[in-house]
Specification:
Layout: E1 4-8, H1 17-27, E2 33-39, H2 48-61, E3 67-72, H3 78-83, E4 87-90, H4 95-102, H5 108-111, E5 116-120, H6 122-127, E6 128-133, E7 138-141, E8 146-152, E9 170-174, E10 179-183
Parallel strand pairs: 1-5, 2-3, 2-4, 4-5, 6-8, 8-9
Antiparallel strand pairs: 1-10, 6-7
Length: 184
Amino acid sequence: MKTKYILHGGLASEPNKQNDLFFKEILKGTDRKLTILLVLFSKEPDRVKHNMEEDIFMFNKNKSDKALLFELAREESFIKQIKKSDIIYFHGGQTTRLINTLTKFPDFKEHIKGKIIAAESAGVYALSKSFYSNITNISLNGTGVIPINAVCHYSSGDEKGLDTENTGLQSVLLPEYEHKVIFF
C-alpha cells in the first residue's frame, strides 16, 4: 500500500481558501472517525500549545461530518502513537529541530507506510531527501523518507539552490499556501 503525502509550502495555519483546500485534501476519502497525530517537534516548547490550537482549528473548520480525535506527538511514545493514528500532521517550524528528533527513530519510515502524511514547510524539508531553504540560502539533507528535492516558501528561481547531486530526484516547488499530493 502506498503512502499518501500532502505537502504544503508554508503558512498553513492562516485561514484562507487555499489552506482550506489543503486540510480538506488531508481528510478526503478517509473514514468518518479519525485519529490525527499532531507532530510539533519543530516548535519551541512555549509555542506548542498555540500551534496545536491553530492546527485543530483548521482541521475542525474543514472536517465536514467527520469525528476527529487529536493527539500531540511525544518523543517517549512516538512510534506507538503513529501506529494508532490515521493521519500524521507535521507542523512547520525549525527544520533542524524536527530532523534531530526524527533521526532518533531509525524505523520511522516503516511505521508510516500506508498512512496519510501531511507536512508543512519544515515538515516537508525534514521528510525530503534534500531541500533548499530560501530563508537561510542553503541546501541541506532531510531524513530521506520521501525521495524528493523540496523548496517551500517557493519564489521563482529558488530551484537553482537545490543540491545538484540529487538531480535524479523529483523537485517539488511549493509556494506559500499551496500544496501538492504525491504517493510513494
